[in-house]
Amino acid sequence: MQQPQPGDTSLETAVHTAILAGRIGRPAAVRWLARHTGEDGDVHALVRARRAVVMWFGSEPAGIHRVGKPGTGHAVETLIWSTGEVAVVVATPGGRFAADDVVVIGSRGTIYHETPVLHTPGAL
Amino acid sequence: MAAHGVLLIGGNRTHLEGYARGFATDPRCRVVAVADESGLPDYRSGLNRLLASELGVPYIDGLDAALRRDDIDVVCMCADVERRGRVATRCAEAGKHIYLDKPLAGSVEDARRIADAVEKASVLAQMFSNINGPWEQRARKAVREGAVGDLLGVHSDMLMAKGRPGTAPYTGRRRKEAPSPDRWTFVEAKRELLDMGVYSVSTALWLAGARASSVYATTANYFFAEHARLDIEDFGTITMELENGTVATATGGRIGWTSHPRAGLRRVVLAGTRGALTFTDSDPHVKVFSDEPPFEMPPVHPWDPMAMWSSTQREVRPRPKNQWLPIEEFTQEADIRAFLDCLDRRSEPEMNARVSVHHIEVIMAAYRSAASGKPVTIG
To answer: What's the CA gap between B98 and B85, in Å, rounded?
Structure first.
């Protein structure tokens, strides 16, 4: 399993550190809402999320189910593992902001991350 | 003189524990009696009689006599899920308006039966949901005002922070789901894709304003030995393609006391062409940090290890989680008031029986999808 590297300050690493420390038990499910900006933002967001959950679960998914209307920037991937884990990743236009809302559910606890910008309609 | 005489069907260790008090405290209502079908197991009839005793009303064993009463025009129906089709239909046929516990029923056939009976009898019926809560009302306002632009997706979560997690055995493989489960009532746990998933499915479809045409789902047993012993899921995901081209996702599950600073992740995200907005039952809130003793998981009640009922939790006395204090709370009373307002105005509830049928269609298709590993089309 890939280990966090010194100086790596990403969301992915922060979550991975907590997982490796056993703080949430066995990671089981991920809910990731990625607000993206820019051309092909949905593609980049889905790729980034997929790399992260592979790191967190320690293996590649056995299957991916994808839905979403092409050209809208809104897509949903459900990634499933043969060992039982699941990740539901939503990529969607973020308006002015790119932001991630991530929930990592483990057998004994949960990690939450929200980019703290978007709780009121006026933010858009 | 109260306008409505209310019959309660069910008893303790059902949502009637809360609904009953919600009706009792509304000045428009008078709780007349508790009743249920005759011939029930002692366990269930005993809990029904206990609720009647707590409320100071008679218990009527058998529905015929209760439903014939002229002083009853409303029924609050919390029969076991497997019996709801039969019981709710009898209530409608007797001309009574019905406040329905969720989920509507344990099969599409039973759900349709209820809706057909309600419509034939021209009575009003409403299924309990979160749509009358302040956060869901704000979400609906945002949809109507076009706050996210054109709606592309609605994503809803209902993950309950109860139960002692970490006891489910790890199998190292995907759960083998049953394509057509037919048992829903257990003492120590529930099938959470139905029990919790109905909240997030009903929220997502209500906000999207469309029906689902296709469903892809997963189920799992991640947290609890109780669910594992019964071979039922404690967590599930559903992805829906809707008839209007939008996409919705829903999660439903019970993930343990230690998984959230409040009652659990209850959330909806509206995703549109202008951006995305998040609404939760915990927001807005204040955070309080002090030298108060921290939250500890309460003792496990032997008859309610998942902490589903207030009556059992009173016995184990869990310390409340106090660090997040919502500024406004959703209560069951708000949903009951909305139902009573519909009775007063003689207007159709938004979450009526027919609308609720589709939630059961979605969730039953979700079980088939989880069993097969493939998307399922809804006719």
So the answer is: 13
Q: Are B174 and A96 within 8 A, CB to CB?
A: no
Strand boundaries in A1-124, DSSP class E = 27-36, 63-67, 75-80, 86-93, 99-106, 110-114
Cα–Cα distance, B46 to A57 (Å, whole number): 47
Q: Which of A82, A92, A107 sits opposite B173 (nearest CB)?
A: A82
A-B Cβ pairs (cutoff 8 Å, strict): 144
Question: Residues B168, B312: one domain?
Answer: yes
* pLDDT at residue B247 greater than cutoff 70: yes
| B11 vs B318: which has the higher pLDDT | B11
CATH number for position B288: 3.30.360.10
Q: Tell which of B83, B102, B123 closes a domain.
A: B123
For chain B positions 149-188, those within 8 Å of chain A (CB to CB) are 152-153, 155, 157, 159, 165-166, 168, 170-175
Is residue B346 a part of any domain in this protein? no
B227 touching chain A per CB within 8 A: no
In order along chain A (124 residues), what is the average pLDDT of each group of 10 residues?
63 96 97 93 95 97 96 97 98 91 97 76 54
